[in-house]
Amino acid sequence: MTPDEFAYTAGFVKERSGLVLTRDKGYLLENRLMPVLRTHNLKSFSDLVARLRNGESALHAATIDAMMSKDTAFFRDWKPFVHFRTVVLPNLAVARGIKKSFRILCAGVSTGQEAYSLAMCVRDAPALEGWSVEIAGLDISASALKIADDACYSQFDIQRGLPIRTLLQHFTKEDDYWRLDPSLRALVKLQAWNVLDEMFPLGRFDVVLCRNVLVYLDLQTKLDVLQKLSRLLVDDGVLYLGLNETITGVSGNFRAVDADAGIYAAHRGTHPSALSLATKIETQRKTRRLFSTGALFRFASGAAFSQRRRLSSSRFRQLRFRAGHSRGPTRFRYSFRRRWPSPASCAACK
Amino acid sequence: MKRCMIVDDSRVIRRFAAKIVQDLGFETTEAEDGRQALQACRDQMPDAIVLDWEMPVMDGIAVTEELRRMPGGNRVAVIMCTVKNEPKSIQEALDVGADEYIMKPFDSEIVRTKFVLLGLIG
Ligand SMILES: C[S@@+](CC[C@H](N)C(=O)[O-])C[C@H]1O[C@@H](n2cnc3c(N)ncnc32)[C@H](O)[C@@H]1O
Prior knowledge:
The structure holds 2 protein chains of 2 kinds. Chain A has helices at 3-17, 26-39, 45-53, 57-67, 79-95, 113-123, 142-150, 155-159, 164-170, 182-185, 219-232, 282-287, 293-301, 307-310, 313-322, and strands at 101-107, 132-139, 152-154, 171-174, 177-180, 188-192, 205-210, 233-241, 254-258, 263-266. By secondary structure, chain A is an alpha/beta fold. Chain A folds into 3 domains: 3-67, Chemotaxis receptor methyltransferase CheR, N-terminal domain (Chemotaxis Receptor Methyltransferase Cher, domain 1), CATH 1.10.155; 79-275, 3-Layer(aba) Sandwich (Rossmann fold); 281-349, no CATH class. In chain A, strands 6-2-1-7-8-10-9 form a 7-stranded mixed beta sheet. Chain A has a 3-stranded antiparallel beta sheet with strand order 3-5-4. In chain A, helix 2 crosses helix 4 (57-67) and helix 5 crosses helix 6. Chain A is globular, with a radius of gyration of 22 Å. In chain B, 43% of the residues lie in helices and 20% in strands. Chain B has a 5-stranded parallel beta sheet, with helices on both faces. Chain B contains 5 helices and 5 strands, in the order βαβαβαβαβα. By secondary structure, chain B is an alpha/beta fold. In chain B, strand 1 (3-7), helix 1 and strand 2 form a beta-alpha-beta unit. Chain A binds chain B through residues 73, 78, 155-156, 159-161, 163-165, 167-168, 172-173, 301-307, 309-310, and chain B through 74-75, 77, 85-87, 90-91, 94, 97, 99-103, 106-107, 109-110, 113, 116-119. S-adenosylmethionine (SAM) is lined by residues 17-18, 68-72, 76, 108, 110, 114, 138-141, 144, 194-196, 211-213, 242 of chain A.
């Protein structure tokens, strides 16, 4: 590829997807575009570039798709999902207790693992039974979305991140593949979407994930996307970024809750920032009862699912007591009388 | 340093797994069948065991059952690591007391995931 062809292709990719390719990434460009040459019967990179310049839209999409890094895993990085499960979901169960619905956005959902991990968390929360929960998954890559849509994963994929009991609970084996339970698949709506485009037609969300997507963008593009995401987020909403994508001091739209784990709260001038779904507040202690002991332990400890078996029974009873299960081992009925505290009565906001 | 025992009748797999587990910061020991493994556990309990299912002398299921009956055997994290990949087999391993399950073939990322899930590493 000549320097001129590289410059054109890199410029095209940046304009369409935000991905920045510096000159030293020539090998990456060639590696990833090789399959496009093959499937489109092109003889050389010059051929490809000429046709890109010509505005062949099928080739445009294929080129962008091929350039994307789509690596992902179930419960990737683990920590953010522990937070989602033990802080955000209990908070949502209270804060949205009247309308009994909430919406989650996965921007850059890739092959679906991230969205389905959230779906499993939602399904495992008995307090949310009968709620209407929507998880929207967006990606620019049609090939990734196709895999996400199928929701059928190889043995390698399912072993990256899924606890074995979760696998048995939510997947069935089909030949050498594992298929996600169709009712979980149905919680997730997939859409081809470019995060550089306007996103307001999607509506607003209580939780937004945009993990390991912004790393590939330059600062200005990153800020633009963050600005758009902040407009999608409700006032008490939560944003999850990848682990090493700190935006502290970069974007004024968000406030770090746990920057190491990529957890941010929407930052509104007028809104008491302490009252965020991302923050453990006093009410959370009560809402822990909403969750079965098993679910709580599994995720609160981030440890072995069978930890319980290994604890002596008196130690277990002690822990169960602390989690608010002094009487019954499993589900707790909860009336939704307790309200999300009004800003005026929230001690943390004063 | 935490200790992990690798039990497999294939030397190649033992070496491969040991290298991965060492990179996770563990000291490793090896055993080539179930009986050897239990003998070593009696001398010193490891923190974790990566355990093959099908072995010529005493299989992984028998080892897990026996281990769970031994004093201190309940504290060891047992990761069954086998070519058996049917839900029925997985359930059987969990029922006798395995904590996690790896289906062969595996790579370092899969092993790392399982160690994180078990709280063995941060
Ligand atoms: C590395 S993956 C991350 C997947 C997942 N969020 C995770 O953290 O595991 C990045 C994904 O973002 C998508 N992506 C990159 N730029 C995008 C854009 N401008 N609009 C929509 N999706 C984009 C890619 O196609 C890819 O699937």
